[in-house]
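QA checklist item 7 of 12: single-chain prediction sanity check.
[x] sequence parsed
[x] length recorded as 129
[x] structure emitted
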Amino acid sequence: QEKLVESGGGLVQPGGSLSLPCAASGRPFSSYNMGWFRQAPAKERELVAVISGTGIITYYADSVKGRFTTTTDNAKNTVDLQLKSLKPEDTAAYYCAGTTKVLGPARTMWSSPRFYDYWGQGTQVTVSS
């Protein structure tokens, strides 16, 4: 069973930045396709970014495009989510998730939390002045 651990969350002012690393305890991240989700209180968990195991394929939700970036650090065996120009509406618990399933052409499939097999415990990001 793969174990994922996120860190790096916290309180930041609007316009600020954070970096959220997701560390894996087992196989290297090149073995997985990774997703980043977030969930605000009383809202459904939503996909914000995806990066393939090769690092070649990335996807960003429209709400974060141009502000969030996901990358892999093979030396540290982490997948990182960099958050910039943060807004109050970005406030949520952020989760990394992994799967060995192929990222097919049907975005509706890999946009769903059910597509992913391994999850971290989440890290809270609060954007407030």
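[x] summary fact logged: The longest strand covers residues 92-99.
[ ] second reviewer sign-off
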